[in-house]
Amino acid sequence: MTTYHFIGIKGTGMSALAQILHDSGEKVQGSDVEKRFFTQEALEEKNIPIFPFSESNIKDDYIIIAGNAFSDDHTEIKEAKKQGLTFYRYHEFLGEWLKQYTSIAVTGAHGKTSTTGLLAHVLNESYPISYLIGDGTGKGHVDSKYFVFEACEYRRHFLRYEPDYAIMTNIDFDHPDYFTSIDDVFDAFQSMADQVKKGIIACGDDEQLQQIQAKVPVVYYGFADTNDFQAQNVKETANATVFDVFVRNTFYDTFEIPMYGDHNILNALSVIAICHYEGLKVEEIKTLCSFQGVKRRFTEKKIGDQILIDDYAHHPKEITATIDSARKKYPDKSVVAIFQPHTFTRTKAFLQEFADSLNLADNVYLCDIFGSAREDSGNLTIHDLQKLVDSSSILELSETEVLLEDSDSVLIFMGAGDIQKFQEAYEEHIASIRNKKLKNA
Fold first, then answer.
1. pLDDT tens across 333-350, in order?
2. 3-state class (DSSP) for residue 275
3. CB-based burial of residue 4 (10 Å sphere; 0-12 exposed, 13-18 middle, 19+ buried)?
């Protein structure tokens, strides 16, 4: 039996893909750095072996899949090429694998992971499916009807895919280390649209997406009445958002999602549109209401009178959306942003935009910029952002106890780097206080 060896198996996409192959009956193993990542747990539950990097991991007749974070001079990649083994980059292999299914790519500058998770949840209630979510979650099934996957625009990797359908959530300028402008980003999405085989579900409220030229039918969704699928009569309840959906101006049905904020309604609309297009019954689509969320997207924990939220937001628009969700869900609490910028290039490109979005919070703590080893800081520091954010302060890892002062608040830990370590340090501090009280009682 062929063995698939994943170089960098702890990466979110790589971990998910490894799980899909394992669930589909393939023999899977991988290698990575020793540091523990949140993606590891699912791999360990499935008994997928993880080894430290070593050229001795590379054996005859293995098929090698390498993560995009690793250059060609990585010790295992060099060994695989020396042995002449079948070798793929992550996105190359995924492009081949999905050809066996009715594939649905979920792409866009923001909202990919949440939308992929939401669509996978609804389809999984009715069919055997496979899915790959960018939070490290993957599931395979030998009899899959659909393959739902997150398709990232970075370095135009998504052009390796020729999906049956594509959901396009929005087009926005991001990844300034690669894209030169919004026009460059649009060009990438236009190229992606050209490769879709059956249909595109696009947000019609997005000005850029309105310009997409497609060879296949395009179904638009959004709040504007020009959309094919439109949300109206939005109401927020204690535990959910309820809204009516009109299809081409005719009432279709009322739906409920356990999330808050316009961005979540739009994500749900895209799922409703593709499911309707594929002939699912409305009762099947309504399983939206039981969605449990995806990792690192508004992941909540209650400690005392504080709500701690872990969120992947690392772009100004995502920060704005996350703060908006918190305000809608917890209207009586103050909102505190704890933000770690991700990469110097992004921080520099969006410095003022980051400040504008963070200023929407009641209180702001800034953590040092999470930089890549491959980029130059260019003398930029976290203090450049601090100057633009009203009454913000710098948060050191050793000083997280200062967050205790924000009582009866929602604390949102945001970032795409290792912001979780700040939340973990704060939770450990709270636990130690609690333990001291118990000892003294």
1. 999 999 999 999 999 999
2. helix
3. buried
